[in-house]
Amino acid sequence: ALSDKCYPDSEVSSVVALGSSDGNGTASDLTQKYQVLFLDFTIAISLKSSLI
Fold first, then answer.
1. Can you give the pLDDT of all 52 residues of the chain as single tens digits?
2. pTM for the predicted model, two decimal places
């Protein structure tokens, strides 16, 4: 998949692979969800570090 080049991380690649196996364009949806989760995680980390 093209996404594998953007996300060489094995964990992300497996998520993308799960999405592309559906064949309904869900790979991009899962990738977007992963990016949102990562963004939330980053924000949470920065908030936590600013509180310390």
1. 444 555 455 555 555 555 444 555 566 777 777 777 888 888 888 888 877 5
2. 0.34
